[in-house]
Amino acid sequence: MSLLTSLLRMRAAHTGNAQRASQLRHLHLSDQPLMLLALKQTGPAARPLAIMLGTDPHRPRLLVAPPSGSTAPMLGTLADAVTAYIDACQRHSEHLPATSSKPARRRYTDAPQILVPNPQTVQHLKDLGDDLRFRSVDDQNPDSRAVQRLGHWLTYLTDRADLPGSAALIPMTSFLGMHWISGQSPLEDEDLATLLAWIDPPRHAASGRDAAHTAEDPATYRPAGPATDAAFDNDHLVPLFDAYAHARRQAQGQQQTRTLQELDRLLATYMQPTWDLMWQAYALLQALPEAKGTARRWDQERTAFTDECNYLAQDGRPRPARDHAVAAAVRLARMEHAATAFAAERAADDPFVRAELRTTGEAFGGPVTTIDPEHTLRGPTGRAQWRPRLTVSTPDPVPMEPGQLLACHTHPNARYKICEVTPADGDTLVELEITAGMGTVTRPNHAVLPEAGAFLVFTIAPDHYRMPEFPARDQTPWTHGGPPADHPADSDEGEGEEEQ
Amino acid sequence: MTPPHQPSPQQRLDTAARAILEQLPMLTHRGLVVDSPPGAGKSTLVAQAADALAQSSAPCVVIAQTNSQVDHLVRRFARHHPHLRIARLTGTEHTVPDDLQVHPGIRIGTRIEALEKTADVIVGTAMKWATVTDRRWPWAIIDEAYQMRSDMLLWTAGLFDRALFVGDPGQLDPFSAVETDRFQGLSHDPMHSAVAVLLANNRDLPVHSLPVSWRLPSSAVPLISDAFYPFMPFHAGGREADRTLTFPITGMRTPTDEVIEHAARTGWALFELPARITGQLDIEAFQAVLGIAERLLARRAITTCEENPEGHVLLPGDIAIGTAHRSQAHHIRALVARQYPQLHGVTVDTANRLQGCEFRVTIVLHPLSGRGDASAFHLEAGRLCVLTSRHRHACIVVARAGIAELLDAHPSNDPVHPGAASKVADGWEANHAVLAHLAQHTIDARAQPGRRRG
């Protein structure tokens, strides 16, 4: 937690109301997200109990797995529902002209977006995906292919959720936590009901804190899943489960159906409050203006989705249970790149983020005192290079060294190099040289030169990123155990043994 | 035949280095790993090995991790192996130091095409080597291989058939700013060091170790060896009598004077400030650190060692101040600039940046000083190891009281993952070992003149 978030948290605790941490929304919100709540049965690792999903706030769809016996029919229905939603995203596509590195291609104009209440649900879906995508496909049973495909999509979506800035699968509590800071602990923030009470208390509540207290009342409180409440298990589920098991043993079909209907009703009332909270949170977030970088990230989301659809059409083998050497390195590089890009774009878009960086020493701000627009220096080849210089006077501490490259929110493509940091009385004078974004002597871009007195905030520029060329999978070098076994699905054992 | 007497450190090192150099040309394995404790002549070995491997028609590729490491290696090649034609492969954004630019034996280039034909040894950072494609050389030497992340090795492993990996296993492990739990347990975890992954996938590779530290004084070796290198014991190169630190000027019997005198006698001292939770910026501790450096210089400390038997007056450049956080180093540097002009030239930096450096005296701000908790970052064994193993004569630690209690209140409870294990010692245990040793060298900052605790 940075100094600024700690301060806001204390202020929220003091005033009893959540504090804004940003005026802008940094993740794309679809007009038709798929809201999904999941409950799992206490005990088994990933046995679903119920899933409530849908794109219409007034008509949630509830799928309940029977207390015992096969979950296949329920999973089949779930697979159909999710696949129908994903297929709907593939209805329209746009043409992308060829670039220097990529041929012309088509890209879907939409991509799936699934909203779940909390990070635990993401983990549950990941477990479910790991279970389902390796299920064998039985030609007699059309459901089995759909279920395997559901496993594939769940793995794709939960993998995307690991990437900072991705909007394919978003846990609502983390989303809200990006924009508001409540007066409770970060651990308590993982609970949707209390977090939302802090942020958007009902009209009759005196404050967010009071509303959170009310929301915690055990008589009315409903956890957002995937784990159920122990008291709910004991008092409500166990009698129904017992009745179901009894009816099953006696082969009383009617009794079984009746018990299942009762279970449906019970779970529908149990999950309805969380369902409503999800849509309340959605409305809150949708009201926020979107930050500039959001659109670019959603474009990437659509590219990734299109790539995945192509992979499914052309290859379609399930992703391996564990990444092999090259895939793991590629994934880590992607994650790191996504994290730095997301951080840099947020800093460029959002004054709140820049303020926070100023408290951690990753940014400084102040008025421009002098500008030397004519400054040039001799390059290594002897040609004159135009490098305008400016000096900024800042009250912030500047723990950076000369040579550090900086970015500025006014011209995201320009780069500034620190030439000298001089502590003056009270303030610090930082002399900067513009190294990119100003054009050349013959074709200068004067817009990048600030006016004297303009207040600018400079943040550390993200490293110039080039995705390194990794060896192909079958070219995995001996240092990493050589090429893995042929089929990704059975690469579990034997990996790393080739060289010996 | 066994020699009748105990072999001297020089003999031991020679035997170890010769064994490695002799094994290299006829190696049947594809790689060889050399573990080296701090200051054990790693760079010398790299230079000699490159010399030996460059005899054949193809150049020897040398891969280091940072530009300063590469410049340092190039300088060493030029000085000690002048007959080699050396090439420095560099990125466009790095400016190679002037003394290397004007050196006639060194060619500098940003593209491999310009260098590969005329060089015996080509040196560059791993990041730069990763941009080289479609080439393969018979041999590569990878320096500081424990600082290299294994995904970086994946980019560069296609460049060579065989490789010599040299590194210090006790230093800081590579890190990433993103969540990397999903890779835990993989034998090719991209977050592990290059050597860890290499050995996990090639269990039969020969592993050698250099047995002697030339840098550390004999007072420091038992502690550093036990606490941070439990699997790789080593010895001190210098004899105790050769390393001295004396003060021709009498002190004022203040706690600060007492702490430097104690460190001069024993090689270690802990300057203990009263217990207090201060967060990262502890001005009192910063002033204590700078006060110690100031007294060392004001009393014109004289050091003698094997290289300077006649004595050397301690200069600001011989002293380093080590911290855990960048903000701390920045603050101390700012204090030096404003209030301590006589300390201009003292190195102030974080553990990460001090890796591989050597100084006569180091003053360390303990990573756990003034903290209310002990996180994995502050407990990391490599961090404390780097900070306490940079010195040739003495190491003075400055800390708030109560670290032992803090450690006991925060036992390391990180989940244990099966699979490739790092060679680094457990941070919690290493911290306790260092602290237990320092307890005998504690000077209370509040003590009345002439009275000492412990």
UniProtKB/TrEMBL annotation, chain A:
Disordered: annotated span: 206-228, 363-382, 468-500
Acidic residues composition-biased segments: 491-500
Name the UniProt record assigns to this protein: Uncharacterized protein
TrEMBL record, chain B:
Domain (Helicase ATP-binding) ranges: 23-177
This protein's UniProt keywords: ATP-binding, Helicase, Hydrolase, Nucleotide-binding
PROSITE patterns assigned to the protein according to its UniProt record, in alphabetical order: HELICASE_ATP_BIND_1
Transmembrane segments: none
Record-linked InterPro entries: Coronavir_polyprotein_1ab, DNA2/NAM7-like_C, Helicase_ATP-bd, P-loop_NTPase
Domain of life: Bacteria
Molecular function GO terms recorded: 5'-3' DNA helicase activity; ATP binding; hydrolase activity
Signal peptide residues on this chain, from the entry's feature table: none
Coiled-coil spans in chain: none
Protein name in UniProt: Helicase
The organism of origin for this protein: Streptomyces filipinensis
